[in-house]
Amino acid sequence: MKAKGFLRIFLILIVLGLNIGCDQVSKSIVRQKMSYDTQIGFLNDHITLIKVENKGAFLSVGNSLSGPLRIILLNLLPLLAVALGLVFILTRTSLNRITLFSVILIVGGGFGNIYDRIVHGSVTDFMHINFGFFQTGIFNVADVSIMTGMIILVIYAWLKKPDAEEIVEERA
C-alpha cells in the first residue's frame, strides 16, 4: 500500500476516534456527575441536560425486547452494520470527502451507542431541546453524530450535480 493510502486510513481512524471519544467522554461525565433527578437548563430551559438510560434504540424503540431477540436486534445487527460501514470507508478510496466524512460520523456515532449497549446494558442519553414548535427526544453526542452524517449525505445527494457519465446514461 502506498504512503497516500496509509495516510488516508490514518486520518479516517483519527476522525473516527475523535468522534467516538467525544461521545464516550460526554457520557462518562454525565454518568459520574449527574443524578437521575437533576435537570440543568440553558437558554430559559429550552435546552436541558437530564440523565436517562435508554435500553432500546432510537427513541427507545425495542426497549421492551428481551433475551436473544434483544441481543440480535439491538447489539449484533447494529454491530454488523457499523463494521460494514467501517470496511466501506476504509476500502472505498474513490469516495469524495463529503461522503467519507458523513459516513465516518454515522459509523462513529453508531459505534458509540453500540459500545454503551454492550458494556453498560443501556445507552446514556442526556440532552433535550424544546422550543415549542421544535422539540426532540432525549439524545446524546452519538445521536448528534449520526443525524449530522445523515443530513450531510442527504443534502449532498440532493445538491450534487450529475457527472457526465450519469447524463449520458439517462439519455440512452
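The above is record 1. Record 2 follows with the same two-line structure.
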Amino acid sequence: MLPGQRELAEQLGISRPSLREAVIVLETLGLVRSMPGKGVVVLDAQLSDSQSQSHDSAVAGASLEDVLQLRYTLEPFIVGLVAQSISSKEVGQLRLTLMDMREALEANDSEAGVSAYIAFHEELFTLTSNPIFQSVVQQTSNALKQSAEVLRNSPEHLAERLEENEAVVRAIRSKNSAQASAEMRRHILREGQRMGIELNIPDDNFGS
C-alpha cells in the first residue's frame, strides 16, 4: 500500500494533481490499483506479469494520438523528477545521445536519427529514481517505438526534435524542474503538430 496522497506528494516534491495524474496512468498500465476508502496499492509481480500480454496488445493497437497522450502525461513529470537529482555524468550521457542525433542529421540518416531520438527518451525514463516509474519504462518505450515509423520524415523535423530535446537537457542541467517539464510538454505538443495531430488535453498552455 502506498502512503496517502498528501504524504506521497510531499515525499516526491510534487503537487497532488500531478500525483493523481501519475496514479491514473499507472493504474491504466496495471501496475497499481486504487481502492476506494483505502488508498493505492502496488500490484504484485505475478499479477502484473499476467497482465503484460494484454498491455502489449493494447500498445500494439494504440493510435498515434494515444501514444502522444501517454507521453504527454508521463514524460514532463519524469523529466521534472530527473532534473532534481541528475548527476553531471548522467547529463553528459544525455548530451552524447543528442550528439548521435546531430550526427545522424548531418549525415541525413533518418534511421540513425530515429534510433538516437528513441534512445534519448529511454535514457530519460531510466534516470528517475522512482521504482514505480521504472516499471512503466517498458510500456512507455513500446509506445514510443510504436510511433517510430512516423518519426522517419523530413530532415527539418529531426532538426526540430534535436533543438527541442536540447532545450529539455539545458533545463535538466540547471536543475530547473518546472522548465524541464514545460520544455517536454512543448516538444510533445509539437510532435503532434508534425504528425498532424492536435492533442486533446485540458491544460494546453504550452502550444504557442
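The chain has two domains: 1-61, 62-199.
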